[in-house]
Write a structure and sequence with these properties.
By secondary structure, this protein is an alpha/beta fold. The protein folds into 3 domains: about 280 residues, TIM Barrel (Alpha-Beta Barrel), CATH 3.20.20; about 170 residues, Sandwich (Jelly Rolls), CATH 2.60.120.260; about 160 residues. Helix content is about 25%, strand content about 25%. It has 16 helices and 35 strands. It is globular.
């Protein structure tokens, strides 16, 4: 690797960049000519939001002509509504089709690319998605029988909503359990100040877990953007406020002297609002909820609780996230070690599903063995997650993210219908855009047991109580099953959802650009592997992210690892009229330095009028990059700059020193506080299990990806959890001579020493203030050149066979 000594660098118009592979050999003159007269294919596109207002043909023409004149390359016709859609046409109405077709025809006339979205609003659903084809979760009902007792009646329904039975199981009640619950708070209750709620049960009660619903509206960590920063023991991110526990559970035998049982951690904003905390068995007559100090300075709020129950059942700590009902980064399992007398044992679980009739009638006699028996009727039901921000009339349930059948139904019911209709008129769209998933998680689907067994070699139905929160056999065994369960969920999201949609797009002759699964990681998934499942992986950065964000780093990492030509970004999200183009340009610079090579603006609000300004402001979201912006007539340089940078970032191959392995557990994405200190002058990508096990290998002392990308060093993140297969692959890579820095052993601050010991010099040398917001980021690409080159800008060469390098700072 060539080392460049650079001590002061400014970003200028001739900045040079990174991206994906171009197989042809170019001369520097070829590159320079296209840099000056950049191809339209490299130009920034816009999400063109429709549905907020009535539609006029003159507005369509005016918008598209303004885009073309300014230097925008194309549009994504996207129905997204944040207001009341007053006067807007409903999707699939004659007027809607007329506007869509006219828009496509006008884009074609002007030489603008034209793409569509996957759904009305976001992200993938509609009225054609039935509850059976929607996102689903496990639910259950239970019966307790005495020894020898016969039950012959309707088994209570697992859900008040429509459901589909999975299994009905029976098992003997562990000797130490009575299988009891005490309801502490039933209805939603609001507390304005510190409160102590005392419960006298009249006799001793043994508790092992507490479950509660809390309505803290604060942003959950999985929803937050991560930006450059230092390693930390605590999470930090955009909009995240760390709240303390909202109180403690306490116990007493005399009602006077109380001992703490457990703290009650806050439950940040999630679609599934339930959390369980486990503790060693505590027997007492009196229990108390001591609710106090739940605020942080400047963030005063009331405490909002519902359905607080105390139970004698040994539950897995925070099982709701471990079982995939909610998406939460998995911490160490704090479940106590319970005795055998307290636990369900897998060898005692009996499948009695064949006794459950279609109408729900169930007849079974418990063994006359002196033990009480539990019956669980386990089923799946819809999460009832719905599409968001679409035009009225064609909203509906989100499709099942674990089902290829549901993915195909969604594609054929919306995208394919539009593709076929436009193609028949000679207006075939170039591609389909897919926004981020933001409507919660799911943890089951039809055929899930078969999918699980094919991956892990055993039947998960033998351990269904584990997925309902119960500890079976041991804490460790239950944790292993939940780990396999999360891995299966993430795998199915990739292969049954994103990969299927991508294949549908390919079959239709269009390209899919997808924010798989999206920064707001609502679903159990592996963001890097998910992005690797689609042709054009896409991240996002918002106008408020002054120092860059790592969601776009995930998109470029996926492009590098999986051999994708384009790494895309939803760009400038929620930009305001008060923000200048020069400010927005600095945000684009971060994106290019993070190896992005396509920008798609979120968004430009469609303007139906020719005589109103600012016109349509999307109910206050602004989406200000449109013809009514006073800066628009001066914006050509803004768009040309992006096009030239994107073009240069598509030349050659990226040069990246480090590949940081994030671990096997999911959900998984780049978390700033978990990254090691990365020395200046070294660039990095990230990978997860999918790439480590399927794509990467050691070759000539380097880490080689199947698509041609290679790295000098593999870095294992400090908090990475490794599967057995990942540990074996890591050992194999080391045995083949690959340098591996394991932050689990060496910590976050010694990577520079490790690189020095290898003699691995930085790609560039520079000096910058030792603060995250002042760090200098860069991208480096290597181009295999042909012909004699004359040096221009920062590229260089001297003969017919030398390469030239492209840098962006």
């Amino acid at each position: 690797m060539k080392t460049k000594a650079i001590f002061w660098i400014a970003i200028c118009l001739c900045s040079l960049l990174l991206s994906s592979c171009r197989p042809s050999r170019l001369t520097l003159d070829d590159v320079y000519a296209e840099f000056c007269d950049v191809p339209d294919s490299a130009r920034t596109k816009v999400w063109w939001f429709h549905g907020e207002t009535p539609t006029t043909r003159e507005g369509i023409t005016a918008d598209l002509e303004a885009f073309k004149q300014a230097g925008v390359g194309g549009v994504v016709y996207y129905d997204q509504v944040h207001g009341k859609a007053l006067g807007a046409d409903s999707v699939f109405s004659d007027a809607w089709w007329d506007a869509l077709i006219f828009s496509a025809r006008e884009a074609q006339r002007l030489g603008l690319t034209f793409e569509i979205s996957l759904s009305n609003g976001y992200v993938a659903g509609g009225p054609w998605i039935t509850k059976e084809m929607s996102m689903k979760r496990l639910c259950y009902s239970e019966l307790k029988l005495s020894s020898g007792e016969c039950y012959n009646d309707i088994f209570p329904a697992p859900s008040a909503d429509e459901f589909w039975d999975v299994k009905t199981l029976a098992f003997p009640l562990p000797q130490a359990l009575k299988w009891q619950e005490k309801v502490l708070i039933a209805q939603r209750t609001r507390f304005e100040k510190a409160t102590k709620l005392v419960y006298d049960f009249g006799e001793a009660f043994t508790a092992r877990s507490i479950t509660y619903n809390e309505y803290n509206g604060s942003k959950h960590p999985t929803l937050c953007m991560n930006w450059p920063g230092a390693p930390s023991d605590e999470f930090y991110g955009d909009g995240f406020v760390a709240y303390p526990p909202f109180g403690t559970l306490e116990a007493s035998n005399d009602g006077v002297h109380y001992q703490a049982v457990c703290t009650l951690p806050t439950l940040y904003r999630l679609h599934y609002r339930e959390k369980s905390i486990s503790f060693p068995a505590v027997t007492a007559r009196y229990f108390r909820l001591n609710l106090h100090d739940w605020d942080v300075p400047g963030k005063q709020r009331a405490l909002d609780l519902r359905k607080v129950t105390l139970s004698d059942k040994p539950m897995t700590e925070t099982w709701q996230s471990r079982a995939g009902l909610q998406s939460e980064y998995i911490a160490a399992n704090e479940t106590p070690v319970y005795s055998k007398d307290e636990l369900i044992h897998s060898e005692d679980i009996i499948d009695v599903s064949h006794l459950l009739q279609a109408d729900g009638r169930f007849c079974w006699t418990a063994p006359d063995d002196g033990r009480s028996w539990m019956l669980l009727r386990v089923a799946q039901t819809s999460t009832k997650a719905k599409t968001k921000h679409g035009r009225p009339g064609q909203m509906g349930l989100e499709c099942d993210k674990l089902s290829a059948e549901a993915a195909r139904l969604q594609w054929n019911s919306f995208a394919q219908l539009i593709i076929d209709s436009l193609s028949a008129l000679g207006l075939k769209p170039l591609g389909v855009a897919m926004d981020s998933h933001e409507v919660g998680s799911q943890n089951w689907t039809h055929h899930y047991p078969q999918e699980f067994q094919s991956l892990h070699g055993y039947d998960v139905q033998d351990y269904l109580p584990v997925l309902l929160g119960f500890v079976v056999d041991s804490k460790e065994k239950s944790d292993e099953i939940l780990f396999h369960h999360r891995q299966t969920l993430a795998h199915l999201v990739n292969v049954r959802y994103f990969a299927v949609l991508d294949s549908m797009a390919a079959a239709a002759g269009v390209r899919l650009t997808a924010q798989a699964m999206g920064n707001a990681q609502h679903m159990i998934c592996d963001n890097i592997a998910a992005k690797g499942s689609v042709r054009r992986p896409q991240g996002e950065f918002w106008a408020k992210h002054q120092h860059g964000c790592y969601d776009i780093k995930e998109a470029s990492s996926a492009a590098h690892l999986y051999g994708k030509q384009i790494a895309s970004a939803e760009a400038f999200t929620d930009a305001k009229y008060s923000q200048s183009l020069s400010y927005l340009k600095t945000l684009a610079d971060y994106a290019f330095a993070f190896h992005l090579n396509e920008l798609v603006v979120c968004a430009s609000a469609y303007q139906p009028w020719l005589d109103k300004a600012p016109g349509n402001t999307a109910n206050g979201r602004e989406y200000c990059l449109n013809r009514n912006n006073s800066m628009w007539p001066l914006s050509n340089g803004f768009w040309d700059y992006q096009a030239r940078c994107a073009y240069m970032m598509r030349q050659g191959r990226p040069v990246v020193d480090l590949c940081i392995y994030l671990g096997s557990d999911v959900p998984n994405k780049i978390l700033s506080h978990r990254l090691p200190v990365i020395p200046e002058g070294y660039d990095w990508d990230v990978c997860t299990d999918d790439a480590l096990l399927r794509v990467l290998s050691a070759r000539d002392g380097r880490l080689q990806a199947a698509g041609g990308m290679s790295y000098s060093v593999l870095v294992v993140e400090r908090l990475a959890t490794l599967s057995t297969a990942a540990e074996a692959k890591l050992a194999q890579l080391k045995a083949y001579g690959l340098p591996v820095y394991d932050a689990r052993v060496s910590g976050d601050y010694a990577l520079q020493n490790f690189l020095d010991s290898l003699g691995l010099q930085p790609d560039v040398r520079f000096r910058s203030a030792n603060l995250p917001e002042n760090r200098l980021f860069f991208a480096h690409r290597r181009v295999e050149a042909a012909g004699t080159m004359v040096s221009r800008a920062l590229a260089f060469g001297s003969n017919a066979r030398e390469d030239f390098d492209i840098y962006f700072f």
